[in-house]
Predict the 3D structure of the following.
Amino acid sequence: MDPKVTEGGLNVTLTIRLLMHGKEVGSIIGKKGETVKKMREESGARINISEGNCPERIVTITGPTDAIFKAFAMIAFKFEEDIDNSMSNSTATSKPPVTLRLVVPASQCGSLIGKGGSKIKEIRESTGAQVQVAGDMLPNSTERAVTISGMPDAIIQCVKQICVVMLEAYAIQGQYAIPHPDLTKLHQLAMQHTPFTPLGQTTPGFPGLDANPPASTHELTIPNDLIGCIIGRQGSKINEIRQMSGAQIKIANAAEGSTERQITITGSPANISLAQYLINARLTSEVSGMGTL
C-alpha cells in the first residue's frame, strides 16, 4: 500500500458517512453548534448532519483526504472525552473503546473484507482497531454499517486504510473521487475527461464492467512545460501512474516547434479513466502549487 495515498497524498475529495445515535450527534454539535463549527474550521472538511427526529442520524464528512482524517480525529477524541466524563460519574473500572459506525456501499464491502477475510484482518492487525462489517444491509438501503472501535489513534489509522480501500475499489469500478481544479489552464484538458463522481454516488456511464473489457486507446495533449510533472524524476511518476492504473501510457517525443506533447493511454475503459484521473491530479497539483502528490 502506498503510504502517500494513505496519508492523503492524492489530493482528492472523498465523502465518508457515519451513522450516529442522537446522543452522539448532540456531542458533535455541542452547545449552540460550537463543537461542530470548531471541527469544520480546524479540519477544513464539510460536516453535514441529517435532519429529523429519528433515533439515528447520518453525519456526512466531505473534503480532501487529510481534512477528512483531521475531522475523524476530532470526532474520535471528542467521543473519548465523553467516555472519560461518563466514567468519572460511574463505578465502572474498565474503559470502553471509542466506537464509530461508517456507512459503506455494499458493493465495496467485498474489497474491505478481502479474500477469506484477508484485508479486514490486515487492517485490524496493522491498526489495532476492531473492525466489523455488518452482514445485513441497513434498512431500505444498499449499504452496510462498518463498525470501528478502539483507541482514537487506532480508529484514525483504520479510517485511513478504509479510505484507501474505497479509492481502490472505485478505481476498479471506474468511479472516482474528484480533485477540485479551478484552473483555466486545465479547462481544456478537463473537457476531454470522463466526468468523475464523488464516492457514494453511482455513475450511469459505468453500467457494470465486463471481467475482460476490450482494450481501447485514448489520447491527451499536455503542454510541454507540464510534461515533467507527469514523467517525474527518472520516470518515477509515469511508472507509478502505469502501475496504479494498469494502463499502458506512451509519451510522444516533442515535435519540432510544438508547445505540446501527445500522451497515448491504452487499456480497459476503467484503466484509461484511472490513468486520466491520476494525470489530472498531477497537473492540478503542479499548476496550483500544492506540492508533489
